[in-house]
């Protein structure tokens, strides 16, 4: 995976591909036939769990958008968006998703009404080109995540292009923020593992009390479902330095099957790039349904939507279907009808998590989930 | 306190004449306010005229004239070309309440009770103190009789004020009635104008010449040269007779045996059925009718209910016909869609009846208002008491949403639509003597609903078609809107020349339009529409919205109570 080089390049594969698609459409129209756009279906129904490499692999189901009266608007928008992408790549510029949405306001009748519409079209193009969104010139708004701990990130100075070393131990009570594009980053570290944390609240606590110093690790706050950049950052870091990755989430199905699963094997929506945007080496260390019992954690009752999410995952998620352990855990929790948050550990003292919980969990592999 | 003896009290009790009763309760007859009184008087006179002409098999030509005498006083003149009335009968027909030819027979005529026209005479007399003037001529070579009449309200007997003979050369035969009365002339949906218009619509065989108080003459010319089939008189059906009536019939019959009574006084009862009824009643067929006790009559009544008797004949009633009904509606409303249906005859309480319905949708009608309803009974327009009428409740009880109209739960539908319902029967069950609303008999509401549903289904397929066409044309404009964007994006990506870009646009047009086929168009295509006619009864909106609403609200309340039962 390489970053598109920053120069005007007619031979850029993305530009060539866009031109190719446009030419095909043009030729079909000249033949008086209805042109079509073909792209892979991006959903859990079109992925399989690649056991060997440990990620969601895209299957070959595709959707075809034939130009008809009902599709002509999206069709026109897709072509216009491809044109914008081509311009961005050719001029080595980038546009955020939001900016792209505003660019469309110049397109008269073909403009997008809401940003989700333009995001969907962007995702379609991305999948159609079988590249990463950044390669077609679009970047997300969202932050990649916060990092603290024994890590030096080597970035480039924006002006001089020289290496820039960022020491993640020197942010005090703050943290290093993962950029939206991480391909060019390099790392120096002596840490023993990476701890990815669901909530920034828990991250703050661990950071404040210097847990990373104590355990010699790198703390990363995902802030909910990890962004692509965050996933790629952890993956590169773990790959480069052969670090184990432990994941610490709330004890609920959102934590298991949205946050952890997406980090580990990727998502249905980004299936065409999961191979690089996932962290197969990740292991789940907490909070598990068994932890709720073992640590007598205070709980909240499961809502109907929680149970529906679990049943959905059991039925449709290839990752859950692959791991008996996860199925057991899900069944156990459905029976308990309860969930527990990371912060629930505070019941035993505010720093119980640092003094007891994490050390105990890290020691005992049997309490983990795959 | 001084005690009163029964004898003293008894002195206060005396018979009430029917005329006195209605003098006090004139609202029961439709004379409750000046506006309605004028309409009711015209209605009673015109109904009688039409009945008379049809009975005599004469194509009716009716002259109606309203002359304003003072601000609140009007003279109503109605003149027909009917058979005329013999001198001896004139006083009773026009000046005795409950005197009529139609009460004791069952046939589909407009009049029923023999109250209407005498009530108009009574109303005129009450409000002006003047006598009604009746002129009638029965044959070309005979002179006309002119009688000035009043009603003696104490005795309900006619009082002849003056009787003369007159030439009346312009008329071969016919009757003319002139009544002065208090009234108020307004236009709108409950006016004389509207009444006459609707009458003309459902009676295409008659000509009505109407001169309104503003001295404008409106002529509703005859549209059909044929009279509707003569309404046949039938005997009552056993199922429709109640115990009391049965006793009265047994008393007055000329039949010698019970079997003979059954076969001669009823329709659909032959010797076989009569014997069966007798067996079911545990009575001998040769029982003498006049000697039957109350218990025996009750047995007979129950026996009748147990016996299976064929439904009454239905050839005694004749509908307007779906075709004529729709044609009438076409004159009145300029719409995109019309349909009409005539139900097969059905029976309530032993009385045969037929329901017809018609509706017009779209076109120039307003879409955000409650649908307009036109109600008719035996070809007479019903303008008042809409809320109390079985037709209205049936329309409310029909689910119009599936037929493409808006409707909130059990209320009248909303949409650009007019609904017409006509009931014809040998005996139309009105809720009151003013004959403005049909009573809620299950058999009748069921038939009305079936007729409405038939029309509704046709309406639904039209509304769906209209929607499809609308969507289709929307899609087409959609195509035209976005084709340039496809072409422009392609031009930008692969640097097409303007000529190539144009070619892309043309080709796309062809490709997309080709797959869609011809676009059908819906528009108003109604050569029958008569805007002059449609305008009648439409003016005077102000008055309309005030009075009519009040009336409707009141009836709405009445209806609510009946529904709660």
Please provide a written account of the structure.
The complex is a heterodimer of chains A (370) and B (565). Chain A has a six-stranded mixed sheet, sandwiched between helices. A three-stranded antiparallel sheet of chain A has the order 9-8-11. Chain A has two domains: 127 residues, Winged helix-like DNA-binding domain superfamily/Winged helix DNA-binding domain (Arc Repressor Mutant, subunit A, Orthogonal Bundle), CATH 1.10.10; 222 residues, Dna Topoisomerase Vi A Subunit, Chain: A, domain 2 (3-Layer(aba) Sandwich), CATH 3.40.1360. Chain A contains 13 helices and 17 strands. Chain A is 40% helix and 17% strand. Chain B is built from 16 helices and 14 strands. In chain B, α12 runs parallel beside α13. Chain B has three domains: 168 residues, Heat Shock Protein 90; 69 residues, Helicase, Ruva Protein, domain 3 (Orthogonal Bundle); 249 residues, 2-Layer Sandwich (Ribosomal Protein S5, domain 2), CATH 3.30.230.10. Chain B is of the alpha+beta class and 565 residues long. In chain B, strands 5-4-3-6-2-1-7-8 form an eight-stranded mixed sheet. In chain B, strands 9, 10, 11, 12, 13 and 14 form a six-stranded mixed sheet that branches. At the A-B interface, α1 and α2 of A face α13 and α14 of B.
Quickly list its features:
heterodimer; A: 370 residues; alpha/beta; Arc Repressor Mutant, subunit A; Dna Topoisomerase Vi A Subunit, Chain: A, domain 2; 2 domains; six-stranded mixed sheet; three-stranded antiparallel sheet; 17 strands; 17% strand; disordered N terminus; B: 565 residues; alpha+beta; Heat Shock Protein 90; Helicase, Ruva Protein, domain 3; Ribosomal Protein S5, domain 2; 3 domains; eight-stranded mixed sheet; 16 helices; 14 strands
């Amino acid at each position: 995976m390489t970053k598109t080089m920053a120069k005007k390049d007619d031979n850029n594969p993305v530009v060539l591909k866009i031109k190719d698609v446009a030419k095909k459409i043009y030729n079909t129209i000249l033949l008086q036939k209805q042109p079509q756009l073909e792209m892979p279906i991006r959903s859990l129904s079109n992925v399989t769990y690649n056991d060997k490499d440990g990620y969601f692999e895209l299957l070959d189901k595709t959707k075809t958008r034939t130009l008809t009266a009902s599709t002509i608007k999206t069709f026109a928008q897709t072509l216009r968006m491809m044109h914008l992408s081509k311009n961005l790549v050719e001029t080595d510029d980038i546009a955020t998703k939001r900016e792209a949405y505003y660019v469309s306001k110049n397109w008269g009748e073909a403009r997008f009404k809401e940003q989700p519409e333009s995001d969907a079209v962007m995702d379609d193009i991305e999948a159609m080109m079988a590249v990463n969104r950044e390669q077609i010139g679009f970047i997300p708004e969202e932050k990649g995540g916060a990092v603290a701990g024994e890590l030096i990130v080597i970035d480039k100075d924006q002006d001089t292009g020289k290496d820039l070393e960022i020491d993640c131990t020197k942010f005090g009570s703050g943290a290093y923020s993962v950029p939206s594009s991480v391909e060019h980053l390099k790392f120096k570290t002596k840490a023993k593992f990476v701890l990815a944390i669901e909530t920034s609240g828990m991250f703050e606590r661990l950071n404040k009390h210097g847990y990373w110093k104590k355990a010699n690790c790198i703390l990363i706050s995902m802030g909910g479902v990890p962004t692509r950049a965050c996933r790629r950052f952890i993956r590169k870091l773990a790959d480069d330095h052969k670090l184990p990755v432990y994941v610490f989430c709330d004890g609920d199905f959102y934590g298991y099957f949205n946050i952890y699963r997406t980090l580990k094997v990727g998502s249905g929506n980004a299936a065409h790039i999961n191979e690089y945007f996932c962290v197969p080496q990740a292991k789940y260390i907490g909070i598990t349904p068994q932890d709720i019992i073992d640590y007598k954690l205070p709980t909240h009752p499961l809502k109907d939507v929680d149970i529906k999410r679990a049943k959905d995952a059991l039925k449709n998620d290839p990752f859950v279907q692959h791991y008996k352990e996860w199925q057991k855990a899900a069944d156990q929790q459905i029976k308990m009808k309860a969930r527990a948050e990371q912060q629930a550990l505070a019941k035993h003292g505010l720093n119980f998590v640092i003094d007891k919980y994490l050390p105990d969990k890290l020691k005992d592999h049997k309490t983990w989930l795959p | 306190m001084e005690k009163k003896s029964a004898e003293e009290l008894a002195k206060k009790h005396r018979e009430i004449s029917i005329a006195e009763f209605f003098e006090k309760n004139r609202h029961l007859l439709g004379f409750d306010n000046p506006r309605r009184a004028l309409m009711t008087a015209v209605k009673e006179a015109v109904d009688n005229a039409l009945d008379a002409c049809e009975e005599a098999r004469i194509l009716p030509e009716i002259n109606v004239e309203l002359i304003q005498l003072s601000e609140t006083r009007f003279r109503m003149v109605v003149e027909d070309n009917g058979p005329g009335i013999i001198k001896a009968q004139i006083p009773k027909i026009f000046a005795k309440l409950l005197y009529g030819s139609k009460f004791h027979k069952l046939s589909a005529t407009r009049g029923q009770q023999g109250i209407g026209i005498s009530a108009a005479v009574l109303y005129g007399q009450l409000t002006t103190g003047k006598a009604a003037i009746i002129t009638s001529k029965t044959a070309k070579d005979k002179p006309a009789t002119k009688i000035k009449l009043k009603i003696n309200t104490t005795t309900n007997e006619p009082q002849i004020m003056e009787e003369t003979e007159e030439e009346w050369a312009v008329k071969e035969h016919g009757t003319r009635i002139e009544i002065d009365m208090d009234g108020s002339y307004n236009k709108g949906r409950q006016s004389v104008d509207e009444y006459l218009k609707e009458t003309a619509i459902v009676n295409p065989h008659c000509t009505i010449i109407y001169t309104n108080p503003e001295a404008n003459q409106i002529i509703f010319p005859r549209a059909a040269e044929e009279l509707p089939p003569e309404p046949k008189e039938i005997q009552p059906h056993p199922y429709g007779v109640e115990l009391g009536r049965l006793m009265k019939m047994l008393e007055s019959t000329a039949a010698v045996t019970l079997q003979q009574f059954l076969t001669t006084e009823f329709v659909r009862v032959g010797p076989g059925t009569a014997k069966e009824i007798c067996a079911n009643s545990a009575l001998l067929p040769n029982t003498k009718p006049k000697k039957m006790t109350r218990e025996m009559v009750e047995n007979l009544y129950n026996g009748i209910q147990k016996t299976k008797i064929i439904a009454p004949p239905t050839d005694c009633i004749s509908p307007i016909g779906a075709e004529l009904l729709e044609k009438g509606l076409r004159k009145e409303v300029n719409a995109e869609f019309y349909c009409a249906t005539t139900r097969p005859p059905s029976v309530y309480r032993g009385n045969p009846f037929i329901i017809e319905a018609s509706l017009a949708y779209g076109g120039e009608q307003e879409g955000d208002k409650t649908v307009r309803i036109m109600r008719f009974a035996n070809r007479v327009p019903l303008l008042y008491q809409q809320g109390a009428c079985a037709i209205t409740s049936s329309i409310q009880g029909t689910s119009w949403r599936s037929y493409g109209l808006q409707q909130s739960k059990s209320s009248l539908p909303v949409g650009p639509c007019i609904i017409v319902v006509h009931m014809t029967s040998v005996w139309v069950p009105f809720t009151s003597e003013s004959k403005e609303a049909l009573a809620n008999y299950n058999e009748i509401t069921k038939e009305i609903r079936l007729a409405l549903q038939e029309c509704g289904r046709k309406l639904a397929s039209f509304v769906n078609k209209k929607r499809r066409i609308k969507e289709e044309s929307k899609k087409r404009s959609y195509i035209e809107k976005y084709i340039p964007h496809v072409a422009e994006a392609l031009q930008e990506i692969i640097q097409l020349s303007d000529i190539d870009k144009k070619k892309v646009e043309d080709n796309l047009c062809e490709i997309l339009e080709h797959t869609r086929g011809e676009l059908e168009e819906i528009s108003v295509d109604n050569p029958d529409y008569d805007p002059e006619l449609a305008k009648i009864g439409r003016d005077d909106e102000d008055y309309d919205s005030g009075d009519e609403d009040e009336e409707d609200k009141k009836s709405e309340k009445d209806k609510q109570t009946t529904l709660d039962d």
